[in-house]
Amino acid sequence: PPLEQLYVHESVDNVIPKHDFVEAFDDLSIPVELVGDGREYEATDGVVSYVPRPEYLDAGWVHCARAGYDEFDTEAYEAAGIPLTNSSGIHGATVGEVAVGLMLSFARLLHLYRDHQGERAWYTPDYERPFTVENERLCVVGLGTIGEGIARRADALGMDVVGVRRSDDPVPGVSELFDPDELHDAVADARFVAIALPHTPATDGLFAEAEFDAMREDAYLVNVARGPIVDESALVSALESGAIAGAGADVFETEPLPESSPLWDMEEVIITPHKGSATNRYHLDIADLVKENVARYQDGEELRNRVA
Ligand code: NAD
Which atom of ligand 1 is closest in space to residue 275's alpha carbon? Predict the structure, then answer.
């Protein structure tokens, strides 16, 4: 049956102002209502939510307001025959710019100058420290929307971009592709390694001691994907031992990053609070995706970004 109602679960407020989001559906053909927990759904309902809830399995279609849908039980959706879609495809610029910003900071030392600004200190770094990202090699691991977004921007800055991808379809701006089982070769010559993978059983803990050992000692890790893809205690050890030079991370095993984490105190670590996708038009970007899928659903077409 066609959809008669679209529900927006208030958990979307984690990333977008919920009322602005609902307003973005003013031109939708079906009514949109903001809801909390404890509601029952039926086959003519669509639901947009940031968090998974068991009752969504009675709806007609569920849209995850995030690109990373790892908290949703895809097998349960498949068993129930309920299509689940995600918000992939809209984070190339936002998360891509954060990744590039982190790399530029490590090269041009912006983070150190800002650290010293609080002390009104006219800081002079050692001569050897600053470098340019231009002509440095970046390895992007995972070349979906975000990976491509990083690669295109890095290419525009004159970086030598290589990547890790399961298929060998070419990617704009990427000069060489490696198979996932060649990860160590892929990262070996890179000054920067950027992770843009989803968190799955195959990527859980993918970056651990052996991977940091495979990286250059002057290399920086950038993780804008999901915390558990990196073994965080192995990362701390690698940074402490000098196996790698630094790390920029937007995501962590536990979020917010606990106050006790040694990462907070490290000069060559830049922590951003999982705000890689933040932008003042995020609600419109997600609403556009949802509207497109409402239209497809009503027309009986295949949904965009279907993940289960
Ligand atoms: P996407 O689906 O467009 O891209 C993921 C890519 O990874 C795909 O090309 C896929 O084929 C590839 N991939 C999957 N498993 C792989 C493996 N084992 N080896 C190599 N490649 C593999 O998703 P996206 O929009 O680029 O987002 C990627 C991830 O980033 C999301 O799953 C999410 O967890 C995270 N994310 C973080 C933020 C943030 O705020 N920091 C925002 C959005 C997404």
Answer: 40
Spell out the alpha helix ranges (H) of the chain: 18-23, 74-80, 92-108, 110-117, 145-156, 183-188, 209-214, 232-241, 282-298
Return left, alpha or beta for 54; rule: phi > 0 is left, psi -120 to 50 is alpha, else beta. Answer: alpha
Active site (annotated) includes residue 91: no
User: What confidence category does residue 4 fall into, taking pLDDT thresholds of 50, 70 and 90?
Assistant: very high
Other residues' Cβ atoms within 10 Å of the Cβ of residue 69: 24
CB count within 10 Å of CB 130 equals 12
Catalytic residue chosen out of the listed positions 66, 152, 153, 274: 274
Ligand 1 centroid to Cα of residue 91, in Å, is 10
Query: Which of 165, 226, 232, 283 is the catalytic position?
Result: 226
- Centre of ligand 1 from the C-alpha of residue 145, in Å: 7
Specify burial of residue 167 (Cβ count, 10 A radius: 0-12, 13-18, 19+): exposed
Q: Residue 142: pLDDT band by 50, 70, 90 thresholds?
A: very high
Q: What angle do CA 124, 108, 274 make, to 5 degrees?
A: 120
Q: How far apart (Å, rounded) are the C-alpha atoms in residues 29 and 213? A: 55
Q: Check if the beta carbon of residue 157 is closer than 8 Å to that of residue 235.
A: no
255 counts as catalytic: yes
Cis peptide before 256, with omega less than 30 degrees from 0? yes
Going by alpha carbons, the residue nearest to atom 44 of ligand 1 is: 67
Q: Is 274 a catalytic residue?
A: yes
Nearest to residue 24, comparing CAs of 279, 286, 280, 278? 286
Give the ipTM.
0.99
